[in-house]
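Incident review: delayed structure delivery

Summary: a single-chain prediction request sat in the queue longer than the usual turnaround. Root cause was a stuck worker, restarted by the on-call engineer. No data loss occurred. The affected request and its eventual output are reproduced below so the record is complete for anyone auditing the incident later.

Affected input:
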Amino acid sequence: MDPSQTWLQRAWANAYLLMVLTTLVWGANAVASRLAVDQISPIALTALRWAGACAVMLPLVRGELRRHWPVLRARWRLACLLGMGGLSGFTVLMYLAAHSTSAINIGILQGSTPIFVLMGAFVAFRTPISRMQGIGVAITLVGVAVIASRGDIDVLMALRFVPGDFLMILACLFNAGLAVGLRLRPPVPGMVYFTALAGFACLAALPPLAAEIALGRFSMPTPLGWLIVAFTVIFPSLLSQLTFLRAIDLIGPGRAGVFVNLVPVFASILAVLILGEPFGLYHAAALVLVLGGIFIAENRIPFGRRKPS
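Output delivered after worker restart:
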């Protein structure tokens, strides 16, 4: 370690610290979605979040954006699809889900995204799924079912799910689609491409915002609502993107991706501490199943064999 470095420089060079900060912010976003209820309407929050992200990023990457514009223009349809679906679609569904489910549920369900990415990669690219990965997928999906049913088998059999849980599962599918689609990203810097996606996300939020206003469901942000908008712009939309991309540069996407498993852990802890939400036995069971399933899916050790010591 270079003693001449400042603490900020040392932190910027520590991939593990950066990924912990990234997942902490993502977990906090689940709590913010619940805090936003009755403080700002969900589609207004989505529109303001991505408009704010564009307002900050465009001046910062304007030169790079202009330089890479020919490449972006040639692949604009992909950027449009990923921005509108993976960013705006995920955000709208998450904030709508918060109106009828808990932040703990949102966080745990969001933790299942890596499994949906695995399944999406198989569908889109025929990426093979090993036996261990298949078992991990099944275990994680059981955890999702436990959350959706509140640990009640009668609810599961009757398919009487809370709308917010269903919306959050759908949001995870959109988010997984973004992760799978990014494999086709053109050769441009990460923050330049993110800015392009944020622009499409902002555009995608405008028609639903108009509908929200026309239906009388729009509400201006309260003072707390504006603070939540500022949080979503600065932290989940910008800071976590910077730390995530930096961590990938340092240790690669595979090792960085493992840390995403911390999102449901942080979301659960923050929901209990900040919102006072109860953490039930079925939450603990679902958390173990979701994280355990992901661990098995990411641990490519065949049955009967062990890693060399």
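Verification: The longest helix spans residues 223-258.
Action items: add queue-age alerting; document worker restart procedure.
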